[in-house]
# Entry
Amino acid sequence: MGLRHLLYGPYERQLVRTLQRQAQVPRHIGVILDGNRRWARHAGASAAHGHQRGADKITEVLEWSQEAGVEVVTLWMLSTDNLDRDPQELAALLDIICAAVERLAEDGRWRLQHVGDLTLLPAVAANRIIAAVARTAESPGLHVNVAVGYGGRHEIASAVRAVLREGVDAGHSLEEVAGTFSVEHIAQHLYTSGQPDPDLVIRTSGEQRLSGFLMWQSAHSEFYFCDAYWPDFRHVDFLRALRAYAQRERRLGR
# Structure
């Protein structure tokens, strides 16, 4: 056991004590699970192995979140852009993602909700996710959004279409719908409708961009970018993100 590993125990406990004093915990955390393939390259392993290691990390992060008092976690597991990957790699990735969602459902501690467009996925994958989510409808614990086939622009376009369709179905002309169109109308038709917007968005792997993640909902979010690849994301990294959030003065656009 190296010296660095031995030092992390006391440091971790110190971070926990600091957070307990600050007592400012995000209600909703969004997580961009980035860096699986790069982790695999550095480890001399296959991309599939990297994705599997990333999937294995999820339960830990949900446990940390629940312990901290977080109410909602959104995990970005597959973007609409990812659907353009090599078909063989995509098939393997989808199988890993579906298996991960099924494990979360079997765990029984989390209430799952799909976030994204299932029509973009192969029918087999979509049905596996639907079935897993349905099994957790009565679960009392942390609310977990699994973002699979998710893109922020796609979500907003879908919300606008839903508003227009709803107005026309109610007998209004498009001109009438446009005349009363509001920000609230879009918010009501987002995938996360009824949930608090993310207070904190964490992205791993050192990339400092959102890439379209929760574009509408993250307008007033705090962002934390971590250098660790997702499979290497540690409890101490999570605590640092919470500490950074607690130390910021949130103005919420004011």
Summary: The mean pLDDT is 92. The first strand starts at residue 28 and ends at 32. The chain has nine helices and six strands. Residues 24 and 246 are 5 Å apart (CA to CA).
